């Protein structure tokens, strides 16, 4: 829950708590906060268990989009390009290209425009 809070931030929170609440009330406030967090965690766990029991396998279907969002959240630009544009082939980034080099095209001869294959979607406004 507090994975993004480091020791420096915790120290600042404790010092702010000492200044705002004072040394007498700070331990009670920490105990109250810890108890409230524990109670919220128990409520969320109970609600999750109840949903899992009532929905059964449909519960996993509800969690599927969330797991996809978590995967996208941790994706770097390089991973996104590799996955979506290069179909997982990262040889362009690693330099392990085994394909033979193509013959260079002369600028004097225009390249004839050929229509894309029938199975490939073509959008003339996008080009």
From TrEMBL:
Pfam families assigned to the protein according to its UniProt record, in alphabetical order: TatA_B_E (PF02416)
Keyword flag DNA-binding: no
Subcellular localization, as worded in the UniProt entry: Cell membrane; Membrane
Cellular component, GO annotation: TAT protein transport complex
Domain of life: Bacteria
Transmembrane annotation, as ranges: 6-23
GO molecular function: protein transmembrane transporter activity
Membrane topology: Single-pass membrane protein
A GO BP entry: protein transport by the Tat complex
Keywords on record: Cell membrane, Membrane, Protein transport, Translocation, Transmembrane, Transmembrane helix, Transport
InterPro entries: TatA/B/E, TatB
HAMAP family membership: TatB (MF_00237)
Role description: Part of the twin-arginine translocation (Tat) system that transports large folded proteins containing a characteristic twin-arginine motif in their signal peptide across membranes. Together with TatC, TatB is part of a receptor directly interacting with Tat signal peptides. TatB may form an oligomeric binding site that transiently accommodates folded Tat precursor proteins before their translocation.
Assembly behavior: The Tat system comprises two distinct complexes: a TatABC complex, containing multiple copies of TatA, TatB and TatC subunits, and a separate TatA complex, containing only TatA subunits. Substrates initially bind to the TatABC complex, which probably triggers association of the separate TatA complex to form the active translocon.
UniProt family annotation: Belongs to the TatB family.
Name recorded for this polypeptide: Sec-independent protein translocase protein TatB
Organism of provenance: Mycolicibacterium hassiacum (strain DSM 44199 / CIP 105218 / JCM 12690 / 3849) (Mycobacterium hassiacum)
Recorded name of the encoding gene: tatB
């Amino acid at each position: 829950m507090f994975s993004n809070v480091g020791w420096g931030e915790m120290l600042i929170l404790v010092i702010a708590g000492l200044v705002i609440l004072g040394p007498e009330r700070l331990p009670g406030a920490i105990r109250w906060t810890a108890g409230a967090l524990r109670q919220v965690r128990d409520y969320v766990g109970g609600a999750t268990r109840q949903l899992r029991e009532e929905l059964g396998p449909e519960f996993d279907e509800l969690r599927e989009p969330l797991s996809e969002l978590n995967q996208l959240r941790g994706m770097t630009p390089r991973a996104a390009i590799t996955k979506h544009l290069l179909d997982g082939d990262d040889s362009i980034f690693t330099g392990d290209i085994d394909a033979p080099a193509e013959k260079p095209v002369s600028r004097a001869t225009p390249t004839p425009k050929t229509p894309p294959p029938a199975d490939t979607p073509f959008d003339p406004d996008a080009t």
